[in-house]
Write a structure and sequence with these properties.
There is one protein chain. It contains 10 helices and 15 strands. With 330 residues, it is α/β, with parallel strands linked by helices. Helix 7 packs antiparallel against helix 8. The strands form 3 sheets. Strands 1, 2, 3, 4, 5, 6, 7, 12, 13 and 14 form a 10-stranded mixed sheet that branches. Strands 9-8-15 form a 3-stranded mixed sheet, with no helix packed on it. The protein folds into 2 domains: 216 residues, Spore Coat Polysaccharide Biosynthesis Protein SpsA, Chain A; 79 residues, no CATH class. The N and C termini lie far apart (38 Å).
């Protein structure tokens, strides 16, 4: 079983200088590939000069996370693909338990390692933590992270278990699965496209797992920070896209009705908090969603009624009203 670690990069020379050496040092069994999204900085020259054995795939345009990986992976031949952010520090033997699990479990399509915070290494990191789930209305959360509350890593998620979604910060996937599902949905551009992909894997009968014996450290927010209204727009828009595409029949419109109301409350909070650009970002996301709704409905394919993949109520209610702050308290 061969593995390729594919790092998507856009104008990230500084991040490559900081993080690429650990990937190379601790991944001797893998082919390392840089998928460059038409960078205009010195990224490619830096890698060619200092790491000539790293293969470089040059994408013609910056199509974001989704199209960037879709374009690059057409040129990658490996059994297992690791999609790795360029702001991730890996650890010794991080690949061993992942490869072992894929070898032992033929129905496991995707695996995520433990993701901790590079800036605070004894805590979980926002994007993925100990494995992802969604609630009844499509809000994502993680073992080790509910909204902005991050748990301290005390070994509570050192297990191997089934999850619902794996973080795009570090996602291992069988290449044949990626190809069969035609990769990421490029209309997402960036943010939540990995949850959509995992949901499609779930609907097709595949399994998504978390391996707590493999550990990485993620910087986070290196490309698009949480304060950027564009990120707000993409998260709200893509969440709605994802719900229409993947919810079981009979649940789409009831769930959407509640979700749109919750989005409205969130937009009002942005306005009251003095963040008008984020208020407008939510409004724009809804306009985009309704313009694309007929097309989204046509893209619906097979859906499963497997019911073990999300919090049965609202994570918003659990967190903000019932004051639940840790995954095991839900």
């Amino acid at each position: 079983m061969n593995i390729a670690v594919v790092i998507l990069n856009w104008n990230g020379k500084g991040l490559l200088q900081q993080f690429l050496p650990s990937v190379i040092e601790f991944s001797p069994e893998a082919q390392i590939i840089l998928a460059d999204n038409a960078s205009t900085d010195d990224s490619i020259n830096y890698v060619e000069t200092h790491f000539p054995h790293v293969r470089i795939i040059r994408n013609r345009t910056n199509g974001g996370f989704a199209k960037g990986y879709n374009d690059a992976l057409k040129h990658v031949d490996a059994d297992i693909i690791c999609l790795l952010n360029n702001d991730v520090e890996v650890t010794q033997n991080w690949l061993d338990p992942i490869i072992s699990r894929f070898s032992q479990e033929s129905d496991t399509a995707i695996i995520q390692p433990k993701i901790c915070d590079l800036k605070n290494k004894d805590h979980f990191e926002y994007a993925g933590a100990g494995g992802g789930f969604i609630d009844k209305y499509g809000f994502p959360y993680c073992r080790g992270r509910l909204f902005e509350t991050l748990e301290k890593d005390q070994g509570q998620y050192d297990d191997f278990t089934e999850i619902f979604w794996a973080s795009g910060a570090c996602l291992f996937i069988r290449k044949n699965t990626f190809d069969q599902l035609e990769g990421f949905d490029e209309s997402f551009f960036a943010h939540m496209e990995e949850i959509d992909l995992c949901w499609r894997v779930f609907n097709s009968g595949g399994r998504i797992k978390y391996e707590g014996q493999s550990v990485i450290y993620h910087l986070g927010g290196a490309t698009l920070s949480n304060t950027n209204p564009k990120k707000t727009y993409l998260n709200f828009k893509n969440s709605l896209f994802m719900l229409v595409k993947n919810l079981p029949s009979g649940k789409v419109f009831p769930v959407l009705f509640i979700r749109l109301m919750l989005d409205g409350l969130a937009s009002l909070k942005f306005l009251l908090d003095g963040m008008p650009l984020h208020f407008l970002a939510v409004l724009r996301s809804h306009i985009t969603f309704f313009l694309n709704l007929p097309k989204l409905i046509r893209t619906r394919k097979g859906h499963t009624n497997r019911n073990n993949y999300y919090h049965r109520t609202s994570i918003v209610w659990s967190y903000f009203v019932n004051k639940k702050r840790t995954f095991d308290s839900l």
